[in-house]
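TEACHING EXERCISE
Course module: macromolecular assemblies
Task: Read the component lines below, then compare them to the predicted structure of the full complex.
Student: A.B.
Group: 4
Components provided:
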Amino acid sequence: SQKIEQNSEALNIQEGKTATLTCNYTNYSPAYLQWYRQDPGRGPVFLLLIRENEKEKRKERLKVTFDTTLKQSLFHITASQPADSATYLCALSNDYKLSFGAGTTVTVRA
Amino acid sequence: DTGVSQDPRHKITKRGQNVTFRCDPISEHNRLYWYRQTLGQGPEFLTYFQNEAQLEKSRLLSDRFSAERPKGSFSTLEIQRTEQGDSAMYLCASSLGLAGGAGEQFFGPGTRLTVL
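Instructor-supplied answer key:
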């Protein structure tokens, strides 16, 4: 069965540094990969979508890469700020249905 | 605020009772989804509507669960004879039906269910 794994450890970084999160998957060939942010007690909020034929996508301080050979996506937050502290979820899909990883919690220290 | 609303935000019930949750999606979105999320896990897909038609139900959705989307607008999720294992956050999301596959989904704040 398909498996989606994100960094098992929480990420604790200093303000201004780059946070790098990983999303690895097996038994799946997704056409799309999305990243969402979730704050405690709230629903996920969409950040970025990357297609299988795209290698990299950027949005402001965020960058996502998608390597379908390695079956891996990397999510980078550059020049991190305390307001970036949240749980980040990767989600894979081929159509309408999203399959989520368990998420990685990021804490940015001032 | 994504524009998707859910009601109630919190529900505490006793085992064996029935509960119903409501989701109001973004008005122009024809797709509506229900997910369930437990602590430390990502959301798990439960069911999906395109307009008023329920097109897929996860095997996680036992026969105690039923969802409707009358007239393709709001949706309800009912759980009958609740069990303690049903305790979770129930998330609703909506999206535009883009040709060729998934676009971004807009999630509501969720309904947190606690079954005592």
